[in-house]
C-alpha cells in the first residue's frame, strides 16, 4: 500500500480526496497548512507528496524548496488551472509533476500510480545490483544513485528516470513523448513544458565544463552525447 501525504488547506477537498484515495488502496495522511506539512514530511516516510501551492504559514513553493534540501520524495504540485508560472516554478524547484485544479480524481490516481511504479520496478529482483555506465556518468538502479566523474549528484525521481532512459540509449534520440509516457505516465499535451524543465534541471547537475551531455534535437527529443574527454 503506497503512502501519501496530502498538504492542502481546503478541508472539504482534503476530506473527500482522502476518502477517495483510501478507497483506491492508498494510505493517506493529511495536513492543512504548509508548516505542519513540512514537519510531517521530515519526520515520516511517504511514497508521494501531494502539495498545494496556496497554503497558510508556508506556501507550497517554500515547502518544496525546504523539502528538496534533503528529501527526494516524489512531489505532485496541485496548481491553479491555467497558471503556467506556478507549474514552471514548481518544476524548477524540483516537483516531479503537477495537476491543475479542479482535476479529475481518476487522473490524479493515474499520476500517483505512475510515480509509485518506479519504486515497484526498483524492488524487482531483475533490477538488483544492476548498474549502467556511459563514460563518466553512471547509475545504480538499486540504490538509485548517480555518479558524475565519481562524484555523487542528487537527482529527483523524475530526473533519475529521464537519465536512465538516456543512458540506455547513448547517442540515440529519445523522444519527449516517450519520456513523458514512461516517466510521468501520460502523453505530452501541446505546450506542456514539464519534460523540458526536468531536463533543464538535470543538465545543470551533470554539466562538465562547457560541454553538456544532454543535447536537444529540436521538435523531437534529446540525445545523450558522451565522449571519453567530456
TrEMBL record:
Predominant location category: cytoplasm
GO cellular component, one term: protein-DNA complex
Keyword Protein transport: no
Pfam families attached to this UniProt entry: Response_reg, Trans_reg_C
PROSITE patterns linked to this entry: OMPR_PHOB, RESPONSE_REGULATORY
Keyword entries, A-Z: Cytoplasm, DNA-binding, Phosphoprotein, Transcription, Transcription regulation, Two-component regulatory system
UniProt-recorded Gene Ontology molecular function terms: phosphorelay response regulator activity; transcription cis-regulatory region binding
UniProt subcellular location: Cytoplasm
SMART domains: REC, Trans_reg_C
SUPFAM superfamilies per the UniProt record, alphabetical: C-terminal effector domain of the bipartite response regulators, CheY-like
DNA-binding region coordinates: 129-226
Cited InterPro entries: CheY-like_superfamily, CpxR-like_REC, OmpR/PhoB-type_DNA-bd, Sig_transdc_resp-reg_C-effctor, Sig_transdc_resp-reg_receiver, WalR-like, WH-like_DNA-bd_sf
Sites bearing 4-aspartylphosphate, chain numbering: 52
Keyword Transmembrane recorded: no
Record-annotated OmpR/PhoB-type domain positions: 129-226
GO biological process, one term: regulation of DNA-templated transcription
All residue ranges annotated as the Response regulatory domain in the record: 3-116
PANTHER family according to UniProt: REGULATOR OF RPOS, TRANSCRIPTIONAL REGULATORY PROTEIN CPXR
Name the UniProt record assigns to this protein: Response regulator transcription factor
Organism field: Pseudoalteromonas xiamenensis
Amino acid at each position: 500500500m503506497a503512502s501519501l501525504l496530502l498538504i492542502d488547506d481546503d478541508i472539504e477537498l482534503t476530506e473527500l480526496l482522502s476518502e477517495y484515495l483510501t478507497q483506491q488502496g492508498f494510505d493517506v495522511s493529511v495536513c492543512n497548512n504548509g508548516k505542519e506539512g513540512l514537519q510531517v514530511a521530515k519526520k515520516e516516510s511517504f511514497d508521494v507528496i501531494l502539495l498545494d501551492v496556496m497554503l497558510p504559514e508556508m506556501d507550497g513553493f517554500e515547502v518544496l524548496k525546504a523539502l528538496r534540501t534533503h528529501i527526494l520524495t516524489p512531489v505532485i504540485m496541485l496548481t491553479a488551472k491555467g497558471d503556467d508560472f506556478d507549474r514552471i516554478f514548481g518544476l524548477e524547484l524540483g516537483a516531479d509533476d503537477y495537476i491543475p485544479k479542479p482535476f479529475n480524481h481518476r487522473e490524479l490516481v493515474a499520476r500517483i500510480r505512475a510515480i509509485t511504479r518506479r519504486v515497484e520496478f526498483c524492488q524487482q529482483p531483475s533490477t538488483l545490483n544492476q548498474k549502467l555506465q556511459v563514460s563518466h556518468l553512471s547509475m545504480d538502479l538499486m540504490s538509485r544513485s548517480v555518479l558524475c566523474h565519481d562524484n555523487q549528484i542528487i537527482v529527483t525521481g523524475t530526473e533519475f528516470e529521464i537519465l536512465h532512459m538516456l543512458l540506455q540509449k547513448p547517442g540515440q534520440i529519445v523522444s519527449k513523448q516517450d519520456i513523458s509516457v514512461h516517466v510521468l505516465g501520460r502523453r505530452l499535451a501541446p505546450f506542456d513544458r514539464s519534460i523540458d524543465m526536468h531536463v533543464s534541471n538535470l543538465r545543470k547537475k551533470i554539466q562538465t565544463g562547457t560541454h553538456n551531455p544532454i543535447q536537444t534535437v529540436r521538435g523531437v527529443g534529446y540525445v545523450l552525447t558522451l565522449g571519453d574527454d567530456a
